[in-house]
Amino acid sequence: MLIQFNFKNFKSFRNEASLDLSAAKMTEFSDRVVSEGNDKILPMAAIYGANASGKSNIYHAFEYMADYVIESFKYGDEEEKFEEYRPTPFLFDSVSSDAESSFEVYFTIPGDMAEKTYHYGFCADRRGVTEEWLNVKAKTARKYASVFYRSTREDLLDLSGLPKSSRDNIQVALEKQVLIVSLGAKLKVSKCKDIRDWFMANEFADFGDPFTNFFLLRRLPKGFIDDDNVQKKVIEYFASFDEAIQDFDIEELPQEDGKDNSKSYKIDALHKMGDSGKVASIPLKQESSGTLKMFALYPSLKEVLDQGSTLFID
Fold first, then answer.
1. Across all residues in the chain, what is the average pLDDT?
2. How many other C-beta atoms lie within 10 A of the C-beta of residue 65?
């Protein structure tokens, strides 16, 4: 579960910004928080602000961090390739535009019976990774213990918290554009793989991007066409915010001559009529924009609720 996300010098954010999900110490809404280790955490947060105030860049900062953790081992020692992938710094002053960007998270891993809290982060500039760290704290501990740390400024690489059998392989293969956690996961080092997998499990839905939005609104939940149980769960999901939708009617459309063999379907939402027990059929595409977005979000919401991961929505 995400506890806190901090980042600095990324796009429109020059100074450090923090998305902190720690709950305030008040008892009025105690039923709205989740216990993680010794902490009380908010399961959801909303960010409000004017146009061009940076809301989307908080989303993009976390998305960038996740992508880099998952993919960085691919870059090797290719400075030209990395230049295109480096984090985009704040460009409106001469110092920040050439400075490093930083990203860090505090989180717990779903299913961890020991309820450890992890603190992972890295800094990167146009040449590669300048600093990276992973710390872990047991539920009963007061301080974090270091798993690994690297710094190009101090010319330091400390892998003492990783298995001895893995240290030499990481040290030999590590390039300046590659994260330890990404390389370690590729080398099947369990402590690194756990962190990488946490980032992989998180989901993103960008309704602000017209290209992404087009495909989101046309994505059906897996098994929705053929599996009655999936349809039932989708109906229950809709009932949680729109009791008028009672069911869905799905009809396979005949294929046109000369078209490809992909199947297409006509999907109607069945609504309860206000003055009788009957239902009225409305094409799903004629539902409100909000309803269509909630339909498109269902696969991601189900995934994160099942896994205990995090969903970022713009």
1. 88
2. 24
